[in-house]
Amino acid sequence: MSIVKLARPEIQTMKPYEAAIQIDDTVRLNANESPEISPIGNFRRPLNRYPEVRPRGLQSKLADRFGCAPQQLLVTRGSSEAIDLLIRTFCAAGQDNIVTPTPSFSMYWHYARIQAATVIEVPTFAENDFAIDIDAVLAACKPSSKLVFVCSPNNPTGTPLSKDDIIRLLEGRDGKSAVVVDEAYVEFGSEGSVIDLVDHFPNLLVLRTLSKALGFAGARCGAVAGPEGVIRLLNAVQSPYALATPVVECVEDALAAEQLALAEKAVEKIVSERERIMSAIESYAFVSKVWPSQANFFLARFRDADGVMQHCAKNNVLLRHFGGALSDCIRITVGSASDNDCLLRALDTLTES
Ligand SMILES: Cc1ncc(COP(=O)(O)O)c(C=O)c1O
Question: At 308, which helix (H) or strand (E)?
């Protein structure tokens, strides 16, 4: 059953912004642009002109890469923007909620708060390797739960969710909630994407990003894939001209076959480094647990997490420390071999102090 009817009623009837038409080789006096072309930058498209309202070429390329039809995908400013668009499209302020396992990616809370949507948290537990309990997620949902966010592999735990579990969640919330599967780190794991399920489950939305495996965090580019009707709504909500010309051109270049082959090699290196530093870190006496991870980071529990953070910072190595249930844990991003050696050298001196 289509989930378009779950969107805020005023969004369901909204039309996309009507931008000035853009036709090459015409005298363009319809968009209050400058006729002057700046010598700054070396782009294929002139920067005095607005970019396309939606970058259609890039949309096709990304759809191809991720495995869906172009009309099932919206290009966004990082997948962060997609989270924001989804919450604004589906949640009426002060009325609706999102459901998500915790701990998870803090942007779900951030954008929910901006939209005055509440967050129903479903705890996962360290003793259970932070496995997501699908029955508990389903039980936590209410009629006003418009979106269920599951991150797989999850940030900051590195835990993946199986395709079977995702299907159970989709079936359990059929016609009642959109299930948003955030695949920011999917390339580093073995579960693979569930984007192929978009054709079979009308309540599935999948988030992808170019910030992690492709190494283009600075370009701010991501995508949301899902049913055409929902993509149309998100398109109406997204700012016109959201993707700047330099970004579109840089990402088009990043999607060339030889660049993708390099990115694939980089992922292999990161995965092998992940295994190397995880086992090195496990061997320190002051580390009590390292959780398995399918991402480009992992979570470890330290006897004195604050002390480790300070010691590493003094040694020029920055790590990520969270509060609450994870206050004794640190999330470690897998860097280059030499970055990782810096971390291990810093930790070696902690053993000696
Ligand atoms: C789980 C998850 N989703 C989405 C994002 C957002 O990524 P971006 O906006 O760079 O695409 C991040 C970034 O760290 C993340 O960890």
Answer: helix 305-314
Report the Cα–Cα distance between both ends of the chain, in Å, rounded: 61
Q: pTM value?
A: 0.97
CB 53 within 8 A of CB 19: yes
What residues are paired with 98 via a beta bridge?
Answer: 119, 147
Per-residue model confidence as pLDDT tens for the chain (353 residues) = 899 999 999 999 999 999 999 999 999 999 999 999 988 888 999 999 999 999 999 999 999 999 999 999 999 999 999 999 999 999 999 999 999 999 999 999 999 999 999 999 999 999 999 999 999 999 999 999 999 999 999 999 999 999 999 999 999 999 999 999 999 999 999 999 999 999 999 999 999 999 999 999 999 999 999 999 999 999 999 999 999 999 999 999 999 999 999 999 999 999 999 999 999 999 999 999 999 999 999 999 999 999 999 999 999 999 999 988 999 999 999 999 999 999 999 999 996 55
DSSP per-residue codes, 61-83:
HHHHHHTS-GGGEEEESHHHHHH
**Which ligand 1 atom lies nearest to the CA of residue 77?**
9
Name all domains of the chain by residue range, CATH numbers in brackets: 4-255 (3.40.640.10), 259-352 (3.90.1150.10)
CA-CA distance, 48 to 322, in Å (whole number)? 44
Q: Select from 182, 206, 333 the residue to mutate for testing ligand 1; criterion: most ligand atoms less than 8 Å from CB.
A: 182
Q: Cα of 33 to ligand 1 centre, how many Å? A: 34
Q: Is the CB of 218 under 6 A from ligand 1?
A: no
- C-beta 155 within 6 A of ligand 1: yes
DSSP for 160-211?
Answer: ---HHHHHHHHHHTTTT-EEEEE-TTGGGSSS---GGGGGT-TTEEEEEESS
* Cα gap 53→316, rounded to integer Å: 43
Q: How far apart are CA 112 and CA 253, in angstroms?
A: 34
